[in-house]
Amino acid sequence: MKRTVGTLIAVSGLLLGLTGCVELMVASGVAAGAAAAGTSVAYYMSAVDEIIGAPLPEVREATSDVLQTVSDGVVEARGDTTRATFHTRFPDGAKIYVTLVSVSHTATRVTVRVGSFGGRAQGRMIISKIVNRLEEGEVPQGAAVSPPPPAR
Question: What homologous superfamily does CATH list for 48-145?
Answer without folding.
Answer: START domain (3.30.530.20)
